[in-house]
Amino acid sequence: xxxxxxxxxxxxxxxxxxxxxxxNTMDRRTAPAILNxxxxxxxxxxxxxxxxxxxxxxxxxxxxxPAVKAIKKCIEIGADEGYLITDRxxxxxxxxxxxxxxxxxxxxxxKTNPVDLIICGKMSIDGDTGQVGPGIARRxxxxxxxxxxxxxxxxxxxxxxxxxxxxxxxxxxxQSTLPCLLSVEKTINEVPYSTFPNMLKAxxxxxxxxxxxxxxxxxIKQLGLKGSPTIVSKVWTPSKPEGGxxxxxxxxxxxxxxxxxxxxxxxxxxxxxxx
Amino acid sequence: MDFQDYKDIWVFIxxxxxxxxxxxxxxxxxxxxxxxxxxSNLAGVLIGENVKNLASTIxxxxxxxxxxxxxxxxxxxxxxxxxKALLDCSNKYKPEIILYGATSTGKDLASAxxxxxxxxxxxxxxxxxxxxxxxxxLASRPAFGGNIMATILCKxxxxxxxxxxxxxxxxxxxxxxxxxxxxxxxxxxAEEDIRTKVLEIVKExxxxxxxxxxxxxxxxxxxxxxxxxxxxxxRLAETLGGVVGASRDVVEAGWVPHAHQVGQAGVTVTPKIxxxxxxxxxxxxxxxxxxxxxxxxINKDSEAPIFESCHYGIVGDAFEIVPILIExxxxxxxxEEVSHVREV
Lengths: 275, 344
Prior knowledge:
Largest sheet of chain A: 9 strands, mixed
CATH class of chain A: Alpha Beta
CATH class of the largest domain in chain B: Alpha Beta
Number of helices of chain B: 8
Domain Electron transfer flavoprotein alpha/beta-subunit N-terminal (chain B): 9-198
Order of helices and strands of chain B: EEEHEHEHEHEEEEEEEEHEHEHEEH
Radius of gyration of chain B: 23 Å
Keywords (chain B): FAD, Flavoprotein
GO molecular function, one term (chain B): electron transfer activity
Shape of chain B: elongated
Oligomer: heterodimer
Number of helices of chain A: 6
Number of domains of chain A: 1
Structural class of chain B: alpha/beta
Family (chain B): Belongs to the ETF alpha-subunit/FixB family.
Cofactor (chain B): FAD
């Protein structure tokens, strides 16, 4: 039976979030916390693979206690178990420190049920890096396969998986040994509406909650802010360019002025050649 | 870690079918500036099979040194094999900074290398600078969902690494015959050591939207209200002979596919004319289009930030303005053709 772990993150909905113009920081109160949309596809893919071959889907996340809500969302999608690692000592982690902490959680989960496949979303919408997935793979010393937009086969018995990796002008078909880590594109699947039984299950579900002390062989120096090589030195709004000329007049007059500018670039439009 | 040991600026050279990715040439341009500021060398790291001959191009675009790993095992990009080569090179020659294109390959490789070194890695950088005295890399990128820029530092580790967006840096004009030093390297790596195999490479034959290659882009935002409203973007693009672009919100709402998305999480574009219609102008969008030749904004909200990043703007309702624009443009073109015929 396959054991698939999906790594997920609870994020502020960056579409809604407002910035505090005085401090240049995110005003988190203005945005609801949601399951990172890319991770929903990771969980959905894990569920599909489990439904095809049999097995268990576990989700794991690092975050503050309210991240339980994101785990419940994954149970709604169809995951079986959820693990939250939460501790002040994790706070301020960059991608390197995050991959370290999540790896420690996966190692612990593996002790009772060895993991065959790990699936991550392409990136998170608040961090936008896509670096944590490959980082986890390196730490576990398993092959990372990024940009995956199709899972062709997972063969536990023979110990391999075949996937499509998308690149700029096509895709490649890659075979990897198991276990391996996939980070998946949004296009890999569509996440359907949750079923009623799953919603009931999610409402009642209580995930495993672990602190640093519940994990094993943890080097505290590699956690959180202390374990993060990168720091944000400043946030700033780019100097505004002068700003454009705003056309005056009614709609028609404005369009005429615009058109005279555009038509100066005639060479772009006169595609008709003299034959 | 003695920082004195770490010098030179490196660019990972991405190559496919014997061609260097444009972003790698752009990074050589950006890297040259950093290297000059630090009075150090600029090096390209070239990994592949039968790639040695590309070194001359890398010198012409500004490098002083090219490290080459030219072995059959590098025929296809694979994280494990490429990572081992780059780690080998980095551990041996100790660069101060390594830059990678923020492509699928560049991001994949950089993430793996950063974990193994270990060191800090800044993703999707759009601005680069270096402190002349200390060699500290200042890597800036839109952050927190793209509403603001953040400058990210890696003070305690070397090398410092960043992936950099395509089309935001400028390649130098190549200097014919410019030479440098080729350093050929080799690593003992057997096929059995690599746990992944590329079974097949499938090129997309269907014509795909490549908004990064278009001369004219008509982009729409959530100000258009609905997928139906967004249709006027398609109509204007068709009239002008351009392609359709979109803001992140529009793509997330599913009005158009992701291939049309302009901005930090989408494509960086530099068309000759860029229309931003019903797009408010979040920083994450602006960084993806600000180098366009002519930026024209149409928005109902006169306070929208897009008006600070455009060359020309119309404050008005897109549903009123765009149909007039389509009609007037068609009329104007007809007149042009007529006058053209007369001249003949």
